[in-house]
Every structure is written in structure tokens, then in C-alpha cells.
Amino acid sequence: MTGYELTRQARLTRARHWLRRILGPWGVFIQGFVQHPRMVASIIPSSRYTIARMLAPVDWQACRLFVEYGPGVGTFCGPVLERLRRDGTLIVIDTNPLFIDYLKRTIRDSRFIAVHGSAEEVEAIIRAHGHEHADYILSGLPFSNLPEAVGERILAATARALRPGGAFMTYQFSRVARDLTAQFFSKVDDGFEWRNVLPCRLAWGWKDKD
């Protein structure tokens, strides 16, 4: 690496540190969006209205394992942990190491586990942490931007990973996630939250009970 490249790299590193220090989680979120724009659904985290509406159907007393795909900087993590039972577990999965590193440094809760990996690996991930099935799985992944067939593989793995009666929950700007959910879950509830930037579609796919 040349001296110019080293200087340029040092400037970029200082800029990233400045952005994180000044903007906090917003700085990390923006950096993640700039680095991987196709894998971040929005440059603006979800609103508190979207969070409350999305989590409203969850039976928290019965929830021992909650899984989230694409947690970003943890917009949903705090609200989930506030509601989650004391002996429950929250596992978040993200392909972006920047987000996983940030979450591990900032969330101090023994119930919280951050995994650098793909949602396609959800079954292996939950087994590795001592669980057979998840009760609820939440996803903010931009399904409309995923490579061909990846969305279908994620949904298939999700359907297998959920317990009977559990739910796969999505919040998106388009119908892609909702339509994919309907391919793998016979019952899908729909919602819409306009108090979000941008307004988003909500969906809950329920796994049939045995």
C-alpha cells in the first residue's frame, strides 16, 4: 500500500470515528447504509409507532426465544428486551459486522445474543444457542433487494425454525416480504403504519398449530 493510500485510509478511519462520536447510533446506521445500501432497508430507523404496532401481537409471557433478522443499530432490540420475560432470549442476526460489533458493545443484557451471519442459517444458529425453535422472528431485511432465491430460502428456513403457533413478522415499504410470507404461511395478518419515514406495510405470518 502506498503512502497516499495509507493517508487516505487514515482519513477515512478518522471520518468514521467522528461520525460515530457525533451522531451516535445514527452515525453507525448511516455508515452501514453507505457501505451496504442494498442490505439496509432504510437510511432512517423505524419509528416508535412502527415498533409498538409491530410488537403488539406478541404473547410475551409465552415467548422464550425472539429472533430478529437485520437489527441494524438495535432500534427494536431495546423495546423487545423491555417486554421479554426474564428467562427469555433475544438473538439478532446480521451480515454486517459493523452492526454486530456496535450491538455487542452497547447492549449489556445477559438475554441478548448478536450473531454475525445470514438469516438462511437461522436453524443452526438457534440450535447452537440451545434452542429447538423460535417463538417469534422479526425481519427488517430488504427482501426486494435480495439476490434471486435468497428470500425464498430465508422464508423456508424461518418456517422450519418457528414453533407451531409462532409468527414471522415483517415491516417493509413494498409488498415483497408480505407476498413471500404468504407462500410459506397459511395465515397472514396485514397492517400499515403511516407514522414512519417512509410509511410501511406490516405483516404477521402465523405458523399452523399442531
Describe this structure in words.
- The protein has 210 residues and is α/β, with parallel strands linked by helices.
- It folds into two domains: 1-35; 37-206, 3-Layer(aba) Sandwich (Rossmann fold), CATH 3.40.50.
- Helix content is 40%, strand content 22%.
- The protein has eight helices and seven strands, in the order αααβαβαβαβαβαββ.
- It has helices at 3-23, 25-35, 48-55, 77-83, 97-106, 122-128, 150-161, 176-184; strands at residues 65-69, 89-94, 112-116, 134-139, 162-172, 187-193, 200-206.
- α7 packs across α8.
- The model has no long low-confidence stretch (mean pLDDT 86).
Characterize this entry briefly.
The protein is α/β, with parallel strands linked by helices. It has helices at residues 3-23, 25-35, 48-55, 77-83, 97-106, 122-128, 150-161, 176-184; strands at residues 65-69, 89-94, 112-116, 134-139, 162-172, 187-193, 200-206. Helix 5 links the parallel strand 2 (89-94) and strand 3.
Helices and strands in order:
Blueprint: H1 3-23, H2 25-35, H3 48-55, E1 65-69, H4 77-83, E2 89-94, H5 97-106, E3 112-116, H6 122-128, E4 134-139, H7 150-161, E5 162-172, H8 176-184, E6 187-193, E7 200-206
Parallel strand pairs: 1-2, 1-4, 2-3, 4-5
Antiparallel strand pairs: 5-7, 6-7
Helix pairs in contact: 1-2, 7-8
List its traits.
210 residues, Rossmann fold, 22% strand
- Class per helix and strand makeup: alpha/beta
- Supply Rg: 18 Å
Identify low-pLDDT runs. none
CATH fold call of the largest domain = Rossmann fold
Globally, the shape reads globular
Cα-to-Cα separation, first versus last residue: 60 Å
Task: Please tell me the CATH architecture of the largest domain by its name.
Answer: 3-Layer(aba) Sandwich
Proportion of beta-strand residues: 15-25%
- CATH homologous superfamily classification of the largest domain: Vaccinia Virus protein VP39
